[in-house]
Amino acid sequence: MSRRVLLICCSLILFSAVRIYAAEDPSALLQELEKTFSSIRTVQTRFRQEKNLRIFSRTLIMEGRLALENPRRLAWRIDSPIRYALVLNGDYAQQWDEDSNKIQKTKTANDPVFKEVLGQIEKWFSGEFASLLNDYDLVVKNSQPPELEFTPKTGGLIGKVIQHVTISVRSDRAYVEQILIEDTGGDTTRIVFYDTVLNAPVSAEKWEVVPND
């Protein structure tokens, strides 16, 4: 194949890819994802969290579980290498850790920063992506599977902590596959979800802040 023919073929492939990418309007994509996610009543999933700290040369890995029940009920548990639990129920948050073996209960309205961060987390996990545009600028990095990069708007509270949040949706667009958080200090956190079960009943013990296992 001549160099000229090869260049033409590459150009056609690139042009086609650009057309496919541009064919899906960001607002239409968000609306489709929100419509799909709106049918989700419960989520139960395992996750692997990889934390890269700028001052260290290794990755800190944590394994845990997430349970979500709309509206506004969420349990986030880390099983290893430490044990920790955060349970949100309406306007209250409870935290427990293995070292202290104590429960801390907080009314989120009394802590604006805590309330803002928890509100963002709930939106990421619930697929309320369009509402994030109040606080973020959006770049659609890929349309299939969807990959959305959110950058906090200038002057907002979140922008003091977070530089970018990239949300990767599964190829079937049924739920989030992973979330990558880049903070302003240069650290990154990647959360990968697996063994995800949607719309199954959540047992009562999942909402107990102290684990019974």
Short description:
This protein is 23% helix and 42% strand. By secondary structure, the protein is an alpha+beta fold. Residues 1-23 have low confidence and may be disordered.
Structure write-up:
This protein has about 210 residues and is of the alpha+beta class. The protein has one domain: Lipoprotein localisation LolA/LolB/LppX (outer membrane lipoprotein receptor (LolB), chain A). Helices cover about 25% and strands about 40% of the residues. The chain contains three helices and eleven strands, in the order ααββββββαβββββ. It has an eleven-stranded antiparallel beta sheet, covered by helices on one side. The radius of gyration is 20 Å and the shape is globular.
Kindly list the characteristics that best describe this protein:
11-stranded antiparallel β-sheet; outer membrane lipoprotein receptor (LolB), chain A; disordered N terminus; alpha+beta; 11 strands; 213 residues; 42% strand
CATH topology: outer membrane lipoprotein receptor (LolB), chain A
Low-confidence stretches: 1-23
What is the makeup of the main sheet? 11 strands, antiparallel
The count of domains is 1
Strand content: 35-45%
Order of strands, widest sheet: 6-5-4-3-2-1-11-10-9-8-7
Distance between the termini: 64 Å
Can you count the helices? Answer: 3
Overall pLDDT confidence: 82
Question: Which class do the helix and strand fractions yield?
Answer: alpha+beta
What would you say the CATH architecture is?
Answer: Clam
Helix content class:
10-25%
Shape: globular
Order of helices and strands: HHEEEEEEHEEEEE
Rg over CA atoms: 20 Å
CATH class: Mainly Beta
Give the beta-strand count.
11
